[in-house]
Structure formats: structure tokens, C-alpha cells
């Protein structure tokens, strides 16, 4: 077959008009802008990295050990220095697969660490779910407790079945819903407050 020979197409080809070309170009530009916007938001939202996570059995129940890697951006540091508290919430779920029905959610737990700054005493304060409270003289020391919080009981000993495999889902996020009402609207529209980790998953099998 001669490669230079033209082959008739099974359908007519029409050249777009000038108006149609401009419209197509505009649509493509809008799609590109939207894709860049969504990718930018996703990149900002996943600024917390879960560096370690595990579950272990104890006499008190099943304990979660987790550590994070992240820093506060300038906007959050400024808000904190003006007395606005920051709330970091860890969410964890354990699900068990069932071949005959939907997956069973065996454990669903959350814990929040509150970080605040007292302008008068120049002290940083942390409080875990309103109970354990500590004070620090500088932000780095206070952030150490946020990044490496104490282990916590997420389930009683009789919650999980020995030998069954459980899928663990875990993430931490800056919880703007716990901010004072006047700050919530501004936080929702400010990219500095979109701070979260991706959901990570791993399997845990109690013995």
C-alpha cells in the first residue's frame, strides 16, 4: 500500500468555525484553571505526614501509637500568637470485612489536642481532649506534643476478635469546626487553615 495515498474517512470532517475555535479554546483554559485549582488545594490539604502508626494490646485495651511530621505555616503562627487556639483532631477507624454483608465498623474514635498561647504569660498550652494539660515556654516544645502525642486507648479488650484482620484508617487534621464562631468563616475561606494528612491504611490482627 502506498503510504502517500489518501484514505477516505467513514465520516465527513468539518473544520471548526472561528467562533467554535474560540469557544473550544476558552473551555480548555477553564478546565486547566480548575485542574490547577483542585491540585493546589489538594497539595495544601495534605501537609501533615503520618510518619508512624501502630496498635498494640494492653491490660487497659488497644492503644494507638502515632507520630506526625509537619510545621505550622506563617498564617497559623500569627493567629496563634494573637490568642486564637488551634485544634488538631486525630480520627481512627477499624473495619472488619464480611463476605456476606457490608464491612463492619468495629472502632471509630477521635481525639483532639488543643494548642493555645497566653499573651500575658507568654506561655504555650496544650490540652488533650480537655484533660491532660501542659505548659511550654516556646512553640517548638509545644509542637513536639502535637507531633508525638501520648498513646491512647481506642477500644476495650473485648471489642476486637482475636485472629480477625482489621483494616485501620487514620488521619489528623486541623479542626476548624472547633474554632470560635467568628473565626470559622474566615478559616474556611483561608488556605492557611487547610491543614490535614491523607488517610493512611494498614492492617491489624489481634492475637
Give the helix/strand layout.
Layout: H1 18-45, E1 46-57, E2 62-69, H2 74-81, E3 86-96, E4 104-118, E5 123-128, E6 132-136, H3 139-147, E7 152-155, E8 166-174, H4 181-188, E9 196-197, E10 200-204
Parallel strand pairs: 1-9
Antiparallel strand pairs: 1-2, 2-7, 3-4, 3-8, 4-5, 5-6, 8-10
Number of strands: 10
The whole-angstrom Rg is: 25 Å
Instruction: Tell me the structural class.
Output: alpha+beta
The total of helices stands at 4
Unreliably modeled segments? 1-7, 30-46
Strand fraction: 35-45%
Order of helices and strands: HEEHEEEEHEEHEE
Distance between the ends:
70 Å
Oligomeric state of the chains in view: single chain
Largest sheet: 6 strands, antiparallel
User: For the residues shown, what is the average pLDDT?
Assistant: 82
Q: Which range best describes the helical content: under 10%, 10-25%, 25-40%, 40-55%, 55-70% or over 70%?
A: 25-40%
The dominant shape is: flat
Across the major sheet, the strand order is 6-5-4-3-8-10
What would you note in describing this structure?
With about 210 residues, the chain is of the alpha+beta class. It contains four helices and ten strands, in the order αββαββββαββαββ. It has helices at about 20-45, 75-80, 140-145, 180-190; strands spanning about 45-55, 60-70, 85-95, 105-120, 125-130, 130-135, 150-155, 165-175, 195, 200-205. The strands form two sheets. A six-stranded antiparallel β-sheet has the order 6-5-4-3-8-10. Residues about 1-5 and about 30-45 have low confidence and may be disordered.
Amino acid at each position: 500500500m502506498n503510504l502517500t495515498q489518501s484514505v477516505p474517512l467513514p465520516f465527513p470532517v468539518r473544520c471548526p468555525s472561528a467562533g467554535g475555535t474560540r469557544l473550544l479554546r476558552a473551555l480548555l483554559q477553564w478546565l486547566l484553571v480548575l485542574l490547577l485549582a483542585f491540585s493546589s488545594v489538594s497539595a495544601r490539604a495534605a501537609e501533615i505526614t503520618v510518619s508512624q502508626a501502630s496498635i498494640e494490646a494492653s491490660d487497659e485495651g488497644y492503644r494507638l501509637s502515632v507520630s506526625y511530621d509537619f510545621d505550622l505555616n506563617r498564617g497559623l503562627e500569627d493567629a496563634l500568637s494573637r490568642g486564637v487556639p488551634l485544634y488538631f483532631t486525630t480520627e481512627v477507624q477499624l473495619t472488619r470485612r464480611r463476605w456476606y454483608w457490608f464491612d463492619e465498623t468495629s472502632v471509630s474514635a477521635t481525639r483532639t489536642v488543643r494548642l493555645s498561647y497566653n499573651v500575658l504569660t507568654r506561655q504555650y498550652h496544650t490540652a488533650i481532649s480537655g484533660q491532660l494539660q501542659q505548659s511550654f515556654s516556646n512553640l517548638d516544645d509545644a509542637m513536639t506534643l502535637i507531633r508525638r502525642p501520648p498513646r491512647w486507648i481506642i477500644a476495650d479488650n473485648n471489642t476486637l476478635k482475636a485472629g480477625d484482620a482489621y483494616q485501620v484508617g487514620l488521619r489528623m487534621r486541623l479542626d476548624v469546626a472547633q474554632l470560635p464562631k467568628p473565626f470559622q468563616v474566615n478559616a474556611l475561606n483561608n488556605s492557611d487553615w487547610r491543614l490535614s494528612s491523607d488517610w493512611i491504611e494498614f492492617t491489624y490482627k489481634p492475637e
